[in-house]
Design goal:
16 helices; ten-stranded antiparallel beta sheet; about 650 residues; nucleotide-binding; alpha+beta; five-stranded parallel beta sheet; ATP binding; sphingosine kinase; elongated
């Protein structure tokens, strides 16, 4: 019996859950059989990731590649049906293996628990007498197409074939040992909130809210083609709800029991996320809920400011595939505190996570709705139109300066350290340059394999070799699946809300209570005077008054995918960046300001007569005109006076690993 067989037998004896947690580092020797000769590989799985070492006959390491654990999202182990010809092309096996054709498998074999797809059919030895089990690891590795190109995430499927034993059950048991070791390693990186308390090998469920009208109206397709496959590869169970009308998410979040979910994922734009946040803060138990639920977003809207700010803050590639990056973020199992802003209007209180606007940018945001079919380009078109027909607004803006000299918070310090590590990774050469390259025209198309010869049998991708495997597993593996990915292997559920009478009654009662109550009070209380009371100048309040082209208060780095509005802003810094542009500014100066917003160098180093950038903790806007547009997170609110104050770190958002 070979050494690998002895290790497998020992591990199968000590197969208690506690022992499996202790034996989370696994390694073994594999070889490939090629025309030019055989190659020996030492494969290791530990806390650093998945490492392959090619060894010379004398045992000296020739090459080494590592797929980092943070880039691996999940794995599957299963049995494939293959023809004799395809078996000959995939010869990655454990050493000391008898001839595959001499193996006598047992019919009706029971697959390992992790072999989800093999529940559909029974597999003993197939017609060719092969009893091999296969382990597939799904990874999204940071790579560069060229020295001048930017980093991007590239999907790679790593494949190991186990056939050290004569029966499929024994080989599957060995593959299952590796699968469970990987699951333990991945779960060890999760924050406690994401792990099921009753079963530490499972993740808790996620709630997905999808707005089918977001952006260009293709959120359903985006979720089905690009998000669901990633959730299923990571074995994240989820419940999908589709919104039916405006403010639906507010009603849902404020009335539903949320104990079953550890995270809420918004598939849509910033408007949907705004509804989710305000719905949560309308609850009596808002503090408990916000402490026990993480928030995430999949960018399917027109602006997508929050998703862009998160990716920018943690140096995660965005433009190559925004949806993929966001999908990997919501399965990362990591989170960060995020500041919120309490906004008091004349008749209600609401909460904001992105911005408050008055003037030019708000005009463009709302008035361009009539050309929504152009997607994000509608903002550029309407900006040029509004620049040619420039308006000014008269008003008074009072603000309470922030203490920018104070020491940064612990969360901000940790974020800076993580960002520095990621920047070092970006500037270095990829350690995975010899790992197989997955190339495709789009994420939803079938992959094409490019394999270095010495690794073509150890690591393989979705090719003609495993098309039968692909056809059976396309509901979770393939972005181009014809099946609905709403029903995932992780027991995820798609919900149609049209006939939920109980929810409708809850909505009606909540709406009636709101109407009867008049001014809404929910969430954390304010430390500011009432909106109709004067501000105490002794507390340090300062005033700007006169004609303004715009006022925009921002607490994320980006307002949109290419609008780097507040470069210094972080998720949890306790600062509102108040940008004022006064009337009288020349059109060329204003055009330069707007044009440079994409690069983030539009703000002056020192405040001047027309443009001021003020870090504040709170502010009050009092328009003197009786017309204009005021927006909160890109959504129009009633025109009139308002005041806002920062609420540091009261929510948590999911961030990249």
């Amino acid at each position: 019996m070979s050494k690998s067989q002895e290790r497998s037998n020992n591990s199968s004896v000590n197969s208690t859950p506690h022992a499996m947690q202790l034996q989370h580092n696994v390694s073994d020797t594999f070889y490939t059989s090629q025309r030019k000769g055989s190659h020996v590989f030492r494969v290791r799985l530990d806390a650093t990731g998945f490492t392959l070492q090619r060894e010379s006959p004398s045992g000296v390491t020739i090459k080494e590649q590592t797929v980092k654990l943070c880039d691996i999202v999940g794995a599957r182990c299963m049995r494939l049906k293959k023809s004799t010809r395809s078996l000959a092309r995939c010869a990655c096996v454990n050493p000391g293996t008898p001839a595959a054709g001499g193996a006598a498998g047992r019919k009706g074999a029971t697959p390992s628990k992790c072999s989800t797809t093999s529940k559909e059919e029974d597999y003993g030895c197939n017609a060719d007498g092969d009893a091999s089990a296969y382990l597939y690891l799904f990874a999204y590795v940071l790579k560069k197409k060229s020295l001048r190109s930017s980093l991007h995430r590239e999907r790679t499927v790593l494949t190991l074939r186990f056939r050290s034993f004569d029966t499929f059950e024994d080989n599957m048991r060995e593959a299952d040992r590796w699968y469970r070791a990987l699951r333990w390693q991945l779960h060890n990186t999760l924050e406690e909130i994401f792990v099921d308390r009753l079963d530490e090998t499972r993740r808790r469920r996620a709630l997905v809210l999808l707005n089918p009208k977001s952006g260009s109206g293709n959120a359903r397709e985006v979720f089905n083609m690009h998000v669901a496959p990633v959730l299923n590869e990571a074995e994240v169970p989820y419940d999908l709800y589709v919104t039916k009308h405006s403010n639906y998410a507010i009603e849902f979040m404020s009335t539903r029991r949320l104990d079953d979910w550890c995270s809420i994922i918004a598939v849509g734009g910033d408007g949907l996320f705004h509804e989710i946040v305000n719905g949560l803060l309308r609850r009596e138990d808002w503090a408990k809920v916000l402490d026990s639920i993480e928030l995430g977003i999949i960018p399917c809207g027109s602006g997508n400011g929050l998703a862009r700010s998160i990716s920018h803050g943690y140096n995660e590639p965005y433009f190559s595939n925004p949806v993929l990056g966001a999908a990997l973020t919501v399965i990362s199992g990591r989170s960060s505190p995020m500041d919120m802003v309490r906004v008091q209007l004349e008749q209600r209180v609401m909460y904001s996570f992105l911005s408050i606007g008055w003037g030019l940018i708000s005009d463009v945001d709302i008035e361009s709705e009539c050309i929504r079919m152009f997607g994000y380009q509608r903002f550029t078109i309407w900006t040029l139109y509004r620049l040619a027909n420039l308006r000014t607004y008269n008003g008074k803006i009072s603000y309470l300066p922030a203490d920018t000299e104070a020491a940064p918070t612990q969360a901000a310090t940790e974020q800076s350290q993580q960002l520095e590590e990621l920047r070092k990774l970006q500037s270095s050469r990829s350690c995975n340059m010899h790992i197989d390259k997955l190339a495709s025209d789009s994420y939803s198309r079938r992959s094409i394999e490019y394999l270095p010869q010495e690794f073509e049998d150890v690591i393989s991708l979705e090719t003609s070799i495993n098309q039968s495997f692909r056809s059976r597993c396309d509901s979770w593996l393939s972005g181009g699946s014809r099946r609905s990915c709403y029903y995932s292997i992780s027991e995820s559920v798609y919900h149609s809300l049209a006939d939920e009478s109980e929810f409708a009654q809850q909505q009606s009662s909540a709406t009636a209570a709101t109407t009867a109550g008049g001014l809404e009070h929910f969430g954390p209380s304010s430390s500011l005077p009432a909106l109709d009371e004067p501000l105490p100048q002794s507390a340090g309040w300062l005033v700007e008054e006169g004609e303004f082209v715009m006022m925009h208060a921002v607490y994320q780095s980006h307002l949109g995918i290419d609008c780097h509005f507040a470069p210094k802003s972080q998720l949890h810094d306790g600062i509102i960046y108040l940008v004022l542009i006064r009337g009288g500014i020349s059109r060329p100066h204003l055009l330069s300001f707007l044009y440079n917003m994409s690069a983030g160098n539009h703000l002056p180093e020192k405040n001047n007569e027309y443009v001021k950038v003020l870090p504040v903790r709170a502010f009050r806007l009092e328009p003197h005109d009786n017309h204009g547009i005021i927006t909160v997170d890109g959504e129009r609110v009633e025109f009139g006076p308002l005041q806002a104050e920062i609420m540091p770190g009261i929510a948590r958002v999911m961030i990249p690993k």
